[in-house]
Design goal:
Blueprint lengths: L25 H17 L14 H4 L28 E6 L10 E2 L6 E2 L3 H14 L8 E3 L7 H4 L3 H12 L6 E3 L3 H6 L2 H5 L27 E6 L2 E5 L15 H13 L25 H16 L3 E6 L17 H9 L4 E6 L6 E4 L5 E4 L12 E7 L3 E8 L4 E4 L9
Parallel strand pairs: 1-4, 4-5, 7-8, 8-9, 9-11
Antiparallel strand pairs: 1-12, 2-3, 6-7, 10-11, 12-13, 13-14
Helix pairs in contact: 9-10
The protein binds zinc ion.
Length: 413
């Protein structure tokens, strides 16, 4: 993020549940769940549109049909994912590298040191780690803000991007690049579309399902790194004033949305806002993109797939600083909550990291940012995918997380 609002997130750094034992307040959570869904579905979208996804009541009561997957009884230690055959596959995650050829600095509040040069070394050591894993990851998810906005100020954006991309060339597996605010501080959307940061060529298409093909109007796609597991990369700056031609109708539309929610003369300031996420360094999802997401998730539900979603901006308040959320995060949640297939949602942007499991059993992970990671530490992770769960093995200041799949019977109400 730009440097505002990095107060300690209310993330759960302990108490991740290793199994799906209902917590004591389960019934209360269900009440919240119903309330949240109603609220989310009735919430007004930015731009005056109304959320359209269908509620999950009809699908929620279906029994699980995961007979093709062997359910494990043992619960391995998350700190030592074994190399045995129970791991189906793995993938790497890394966020907010924000490289710049600059001396160390501080964030806006001056309380977090930023290691602009060392971030490249952090990336290199992460890549060396992934390259030497006994069973290499299928892919790596880069969660956005790959170079810092300062590069634009010094007119070295292309040079810095090339340096970081040359480092990524060392990686032996595909990397999927997400776009964050710092991409748009350095480059226009048009430039990014034609750059190496556009990894849409790695997408998978679903034959005979044209509704699952994303529009060219936003940067989003889906792919299948392993059978029955679909990954969806979202464009959290689809609605944004960043990177858009200021003479375009879309810029005017997005500026109007932003100003309607933020009367401050400095649009990067959340001061006094009832919805503090409406700042210039954030963005949102268009209804068109959300409709597409809804179609892909419908396909995944029908085909009993498990889904991982990736976005630069987080969408769940309890896993994030409230200033860092996507403008219309409620609309994205409403779509996701109307399906049963989504296992987890990975985001960057906050730098501090955070985690929360929402009432629908979706795990929200905000990854700790490389840029604010001291040279003697690290900030990346590998997610090991099992038949019944995903396990994030964090490195350095990224904590381990266990993400059990939903027990769908638990959602009968
Ligand atoms: Zn960011």
């Amino acid at each position: 993020m730009l440097g505002l609002g990095t107060s300690q997130s209310p993330a759960m750094h302990s108490g991740d549940r290793a199994s799906f034992d209902p917590p004591p307040d389960f019934r209360r959570r269900f009440h919240f769940l119903r309330k949240s869904l109603r609220a989310a579905l009735s919430a007004q979208l930015v731009g005056g549109e109304v959320a359209q996804p269908v509620a999950r009541e009809s699908s929620a009561v279906e029994p699980t049909r995961e007979t093709h997957l062997k359910v494990m009884d043992d619960k391995p230690d998350p700190g030592t994912p074994s190399e045995n055959s129970e791991v189906l596959f793995s993938f790497g995650v890394i966020a907010d590298i924000q490289y710049a050829d600059l001396e160390d600095g501080y964030n806006f509040q001056g309380n977090r040191r930023r290691y602009y040069r060392h971030s490249l070394l952090h990336l290199r050591s992460a890549i060396e780690h992934w390259n030497t894993e006994g069973s290499p990851p299928r892919c790596v998810l880069q969660l956005g803000d790959i170079i810092d906005g300062y590069n634009a100020q010094y007119q070295v954006s292309e040079k810095s991007l090339e340096l970081v991309m040359n480092t990524f060339q060392m990686l032996k597996v595909p990397v999927h690049h997400t776009w964050g605010n710092h991409e748009f501080y350095n480059f226009s959307r048009n430039y990014l579309t034609n750059s190496k940061l556009n990894t849409k060529f790695l997408e998978d298409q679903i034959v005979h399902h044209p509704e699952t093909v994303p529009s060219e109007d936003y940067y989003a796609y889906h792919f299948v790194p392993f059978p029955q597991f679909r990954f969806i990369l979202l464009d959290a700056y689809d609605l944004s004033v960043l990177g858009v031609d200021q003479s375009s109708p879309k810029y005017q539309q997005c500026l109007k949305i932003l100003k309607e929610h933020n009367p401050n003369s400095e649009l990067n300031s959340p001061q006094g806002l009832s919805e503090p996420q409406f700042v210039q360094f954030n963005g949102g999802f268009s209804q068109e993109q959300l409709n597409w997401l809804n179609e892909v998730l419908t396909f995944s539900d029908t085909n009993q797939e498990k889904v991982v979603i990736v976005s630069h901006l987080p969408i769940y308040p309890e896993a994030s600083d409230s200033v860092c959320l996507a403008w219309n995060y409620r609309d994205a949640l409403a779509v996701i909550w109307s399906h049963k297939c989504v296992v987890c949602f990975f985001a960057g942007h906050t730098h501090d990291g955070g985690y929360s499991e929402d009432p629908f059993g979706v795990h929200h992970i905000n990854l700790e940012g490389v840029i604010e990671t001291a040279p003697d530490s690290q900030a990346f992770g590998t997610v090991y995918v099992y038949p019944d769960k995903m396990m994030l093995k964090g490195r350095g200041r990224v904590p381990d997380r266990i993400m059990n799949y939903k027990k769908e019977n638990a959602f009968q109400f």
